[in-house]
Amino acid sequence: DAKTTQPPSMDCAEGRAANLPCNHSTISGNEYVYWYRQIHSQGPQYIIHGLKNNETNEMASLIITEDRKSSTLILPHATLRDTAVYYCIAGPWGSNYQLIWGAGTKLIIKP
Amino acid sequence: DVKVTQSSRYLVKRTGEKVFLECVQDMDHENMFWYRQDPGLGLRLIYFSYDVKMKEKGDIPEGYSVSREKKERFSLILESASTNQTSMYLCASSPPGGAQYFGPGTRLTVT
After folding, report:
1. Are A43 and B92 an interchain contact pair (Cβ–Cβ within 8 Å)?
2. pLDDT tens for residues A28-45?
């Protein structure tokens, strides 16, 4: 599975858009990009996934570059409850057992 | 809402004890997973199961076994607990081609 690279930490002001980058330069054609987040003392929570088109749901938007080597997760109006570790993972859809979880990005939303 | 529950949030056991961690999901998911999470190492897959009585080793199965007698329940067993098994244990479930839903985790301390 493709390795992903994320910044270890980021800050964002409450109410602003939080843009979390992820690099996955070795991603292969059948691998999706998944995003999960883990709020302190809880299990990870699924956010969104995509293959090559941009995706949006009630939680976030996912922007994937045309060459698929990087992506950005956007939380449009960050709140204090969005403070969490965000994981970007690449792998074939339906092969959860193959996903490699890195250290993620610690996003801190500041009032 | 999908709900994955784990039998304990915190557990303290002694070296050599047999430890059972229970996980129950209420969404009729075929797949279930056990991970451990340690600082700086991300989530690592211990075992997963794609059907009742079926199990597959993950990346770090040594020292662990699992049991899945019913679809909704997946148990992780530490046959003889050791201090290096002190960790956060996370259970997850998913449909065959879907995202994973995680439980709240069990923080196990082996003394």
Report:
1. yes
2. 888 999 999 999 989 999
